[in-house]
Design a protein that fits this description.
The structure holds three protein chains of three kinds. Chain A is α+β, with helices and mostly antiparallel strands. Helix content of chain A is 19%, strand content 36%. Chain A starts with a helix and ends with a strand. Chain B is 66% helix and 1% strand. The chains are: A alpha+beta, B mainly alpha, C alpha+beta. At the B-C interface, helix 4, helix 8, helix 10, helix 11 and helix 12 of B face helix 2, helix 3, helix 4, strand 7 and strand 9 of C.
Chain lengths: 190, 534, 284
């Protein structure tokens, strides 16, 4: 005959399982970020600088067409456009491109650019060594700026990938202020 | 197996040192008796069935014609949301928990559940949770209107104020389920009578053992999900908001990691009920007991790793879609095994068609239809056309209404005479069955065509070419609703002790199991001395 | 005989009618793109397989219910396992599923191949309308529901295309591979046109891509496929596929002022960079 004590023990064990699963739910967040960044799933490019492997060579045998696109979230009153619509690039080659942003909101604002890369199978191969999306961008009223992105496509990118689209959505990040320098490296004011 | 039973003492009659139950509402408020708590769950579920059913009728009235009929789009979205939430969390889950409470102790030869006071609390959380949820209908702003799946950012950044009540209500429902499943799992592990080995337990108990583990594993994930929602809404976090570095697709992953096992939670105990009913009315032992146990466990385990089939159009990479397609298709194999085993039980049996068997047969046919539309949905390129359309609505109503709900009806007609000592009117039972079958099929079969023809779901008004099938569906819904009134009458009559008295232990000729060795009606306390099981 | 064949034709046309107003109300359209046709074939194949399985299962059931009724004296047999049959009904469904999975895998690969598209259009979902941007042609506009509130309320008779009509449709040339980049301005929407076989979620902050190649001139309609708030039912999609000539004419008529402004903006921006870096824009 089982006793109240064994009920308590089993209940405790199962209860720990419940708490673990609750914690697991929160663990899913960093786990998701990790898997997405590593595999490039959901078009998540990295939001931190990539390191160029020493000995990375340029693959001159093929080119990949990279398209650029921009969006403004929730009707954000900005002009935000890429300075080039497309470029062609060899895998392993590093290129610098700029995006133009103009604050038309009528007040100062903190903005965050969120990158998205498609096709999702290609996302993990597009690596940025410097990007305005790594940090928030602060804009005075009516401020205009050119914001740089240094990137390369990893030479290990599969042969089937011929086109990649790198897209940025600009958000109003005033609700999520972060402590950081006001002007980020490489940004050129007009 | 459940066959080998030593004819136990009629434990209640001889060992009853206790008084009968208290009188009045105090009995129901403070009871720790598993039968009373089972009754509370079932009565609560029946009330919620009519509340959510009424909402469904409002929805169907609005959809009787293209353009506005009765409800504004705002009200319509609230109705679809509340209908879904209440049916899932307030009807199916409590009804199955009610059966668990009534039956598990009796089926394993235990006097009560392992943690009787926790049991009381598990139930009473529910009326509070649903009062909170339903109260949002009477608040000045909109009640939850983002679908029962409450995707972010519609429910976070763009959600109405009542969303916070919704979140707390979900927490309470989740707590209720977690506490109930703790109880059920501990009871099954610790309180089986001597000789009641795991591979001798009735399938219903196995079904609840699997479901209990599923609930313990995924209800906390739902709790985490809605807590993250609350934090995004009020504490400046950005789990699901890209502006702060979060991701709306992450919401879908977290939700469906809970949501897919949830649908197996809704059906597995029902499978257990069918595995009791079909052998009884075929007068033949269940075919393939061990296979059924493994299939149940298999469905539960594989159910954890298929969640992304609800998200095929979110922009997943190729290999992720392939994996989830293959895994989802795999679930069809153990499910098919179960259907074939039930068929093989009926084959060469000696069949009668009392109401429980009618509902079990209706389940067998129509759950199969729902399962087959599920196979169609699992194919990713085809799913691109089905997803978000009425084809999906047809699929899940087939597996939930003629799936879960029919198993609940079968269980009520099967066990209520045993519990109450009164036989229901077979004529009324048949009316209930046929109106339900005709109504249900008229309502939901045309929805397959509507979805294929391009009608999206969750819309209050639709394009003109969808009118005819929508009108048929609305008529079917009302026929189904009328059928449920017969059921309500049957249940009320049984509770009022009306109807032909039943005195045999074995109410049904083919019934097997420890609960059928008890007197009819079942005494308040049973198996205070454990029976010996061979 | 001829009379009979007339009856058959009439009945089948009722069943599979592609009426003047709409595709069949019974089934998915085979559609006008290579993908939509593949998807349709896959759907029909799976549907037939399911019908056969259902027929087998239900005939066994109905046979049993009739033959083994207690009222007709049937006595229950006593078997409860049969190894070879159990293995068969495990392995055969598995094989059937594999047979369905193979074409599905192949079609999915085709859907993922957006390369070598000739036109790129960005589709942005808003509450409750769509924005279409022809990124290389400098055209951008909103597409709103054209049905009126009076029609919705029943104060005016409804058009045949009630809730499926817009003010500014998406215009594309036929026989051209069009890549769409889908995103959202606010909540999750979904761009769905059944005749094109295309459905793609529009997620705020992220971009998804898909493609279609329309082989027939015509007008194709769809709706938003993800609950996005109060007017989810009122943001349809209309795609007008026209000849290349017509498309070129449409393009020249619709170039926006914004596009011309951007040329100036871009020139000024590049000049600023040149001044600062004293080099061209694209070098390291």
């Amino acid at each position: 005959m089982t006793t109240k004590k064994s009920h308590k023990r089993l209940t405790l064990i199962l209860g720990c399982g419940v708490l673990f699963m609750f914690g697991f739910c929160y663990m899913l967040i960093p786990l998701y970020e990790l898997v997405c960044k590593k595999e490039g799933i959901n078009g998540k490019g990295a939001s931190s600088a990539a390191v160029i492997q020493s000995g990375m060579t340029v693959d001159h045998s093929r080119v990949i067409k990279v398209d650029f696109s921009t969006s403004l979230h929730a009707n954000l009153k900005f002009k935000f456009i890429p300075l080039e619509r497309h470029i062609t690039i060899h895998p392993g080659e590093t290129k610098l491109i700029y995006f133009y942003a103009e604050n038309q909101t009528g007040h100062e604002i903190t903005a965050q650019a969120v990158p998205s890369i498609t096709p999702s199978d290609a996302a993990k191969y597009l690596k940025k060594t410097q990007c305005f999306c790594f940090t928030q961008q602060y804009f005075f009223k009516k401020e205009k700026a050119d914001m740089p992105v240094y990137f390369f496509i990893d030479p290990s990118v599969p042969k089937e990938i011929k086109e990649i689209t790198l897209s940025y959505t600009l958000f109003d990040a005033s609700a999520f202020p972060k402590k950081q320098a006001r002007v980020t490296q490489g940004r050129i004011d007009l | 197996m459940s066959e080998a039973i030593h004819h136990a003492h009629h434990s209640g009659a001889h060992d009853d040192h206790h008084h009968g139950p208290e009188k009045g509402f105090k009995r129901w408020l403070f009871t720790t008796n598993h039968k009373d708590i089972g009754t509370l769950y079932l009565v609560f579920s029946l009330i919620m069935l009519f509340v959510a059913g009424f909402m469904a009728l409002l929805i169907r009235i609005e959809l009787f014609e293209p353009g506005k009929v009765l409800l504004s789009p705002e009200t319509f979205n609230q109705m679809t949301t509340m209908h879904g939430l209440i049916m899932v969390f307030g009807v199916i889950m409590p009804a199955l928990a009610g059966f668990a409470n009534w039956l598990i102790p009796m089926m394993i030869g235990a006097p009560d559940m392992a943690l009787p006071r926790l049991n009381n609390w598990s139930f009473w959380l529910l009326p509070f949770a649903f009062s909170m949820l339903l109260s949002t209908l009477f608040m000045s702003g909109p009640s939850p209107d983002f679908g029962w799946t409450f995707y972010a950012p519609l429910s976070t950044t763009y959600g109405p104020q009542s969303t916070d009540f919704f979140i707390f209500s979900i927490h309470m429902m989740g707590a209720s389920s977690i506490l109930a499943s703790l109880n059920i799992v501990v009871t099954i592990f610790n309180m089986r009578a001597p000789g009641m080995h795991f591979m001798k337990m009735p399938l219903f108990v196995w079904a609840w053992l699997s479901t209990g583990f599923l609930l313990l594993a995924v209800m906390p994930v739902l709790a985490g999900c809605v807590t993250m929602m609350l934090m995004d809404r009020h504490f400046h976090t950005s789990f699901f908001n890209a502006a702060g570095g979060g991701d709306p697709v992450l919401f879908q992953h977290v939700f469906w990691f809970f949501g897919h096992p949830e649908v197996y939670i809704l059906i597995l105990p029902g499978f257990g009920i069918i595995s009791e009913v079909i052998p009884a009315f075929s007068r033949k032992k269940l075919f393939g007991y061990a296979a059924m146990v493994y299939a149940t466990a298999g469905i539960a385990i594989v159910g954890f790793v298929v969640w992304m089939h609800h998200m095929f159009t979110t922009g997943a990479p190729y290999f992720a879609q392939l994996y989830f397609m293959y895994a989802t298709m795999l679930v069809a194999v153990p499910t098919g095994i179960k259907v074939f085993n039930w068929l093989a039980t009926i084959f060469k049996g000696s069949i009668t068609f009392e109401t429980p068997m009618l509902f079990a047969l209706g389940f067998l046919v129509m759950f199969t239809i729902g399962g087959l539309s599920g196979v169609m949905l699992s194919l990713v390129p085809a799913d691109y056309q089905y997803r978000g359309s009425y084809f999906v609505v047809a699929h899940f109503h087939y597996v939930l209404v003629t799936g879960s709900l029919f198993t609940i009806f079968a269980g009520v007609y099967y066990w209520l005479p045993k519990w109450t000592g009164r036989m229901y009117s077979e004529t009324l039972g048949q009316f209930h069955f046929w109106l339900s079958v005709i109504g249900m099929n008229l309502t939901f079969f045309p929805m397959h065509f509507l979805g294929l023809a391009g009608m999206p779901r969750r819309i209050p008004d639709y394009a003109i070419q969808f009118t005819d099938f929508n009108q048929i569906a609305t008529i079917g819904a009302f026929i189904f609703a009328i059928g449920q009134l017969f059921f309500l009458y049957v249940v009320i009559q049984a509770c009022r002790h009306k109807g032909k008295r039943v005195v045999e232990d074995k109410v049904w000729e083919g019934a097997h199991g420890l609960e059928w060795t008890l007197p009819t009606p079942v005494p308040y306390h049973t198996f205070e001395t454990a029976p010996v099981v061979h | 005989m001829r009379f009979m064949s007339k009856i058959v034709i009439l009945l089948s046309s009722l069943f599979f009618a592609a009426s003047a107003y709409a595709d069949s109300i019974w089934n998915m359209p085979a559609g006008v793109t290579p993908i939509s046709r593949e998807v349709y074939n896959l759907h029909m194949a799976c549907f037939y397989v399911c019908c056969v399985i259902a027929a087998i299962v239900f005939s066994v059931l109905i046979f049993s219910l009739i033959k083994y009724r207690k009222s007709k004296g049937a006595k229950a047999a006593h078997f409860h396992e049969h190894l070879s049959v159990e293995i068969a009904w495990t392995v055969v469904p598995l094989l059937i599923l594999v047979a369905l999975a193979i074409p599905a895998t192949i079609v999915l690969k085709q859907i993922h191949n957006t390369d070598e598209s000739q036109l790129t259009i960005k589709v942005t979902g808003y509450q409750w309308k769509w924005k279409y941007e022809y990124l290389d042609q400098g055209i951008s506009y909103f597409s709103n529901l054209a049905s009126t509130q009076k029609q919705i309320n029943g104060d005016m008779p409804k058009n045949p295309w009630f809730l499926l009509e817009v003010d500014n449709p998406l215009v594309v040339p036929v026989n051209t591979k069009v890549k769409i980049l889908v995103t959202s301005d606010d909540v999750v929407h979904d761009w769905w046109v059944p005749s094109l076989g295309v459905k793609q979620d529009a997620i705020p902050g992220f971009i998804n891509e898909n493609w279609f190649l329309i082989t027939r001139v015509g007008t194709y309609r769809g709706q938003c496929g993800e609950l996005c708030g109060v007017n989810h039912a009122f943001m349809p999609i209309v795609v007008k596929a026209v000849s290349q000539n017509e498309f070129n004419q449409w393009l020249s008529m619709h170039r926006t002022v914004g596009y011309r402004n951007n040329t100036h903006t871009i020139a000024r921006a590049k000049a600023a960079i040149k001044k600062v870096t004293k080099k061209g824009v694209e070098s390291l």
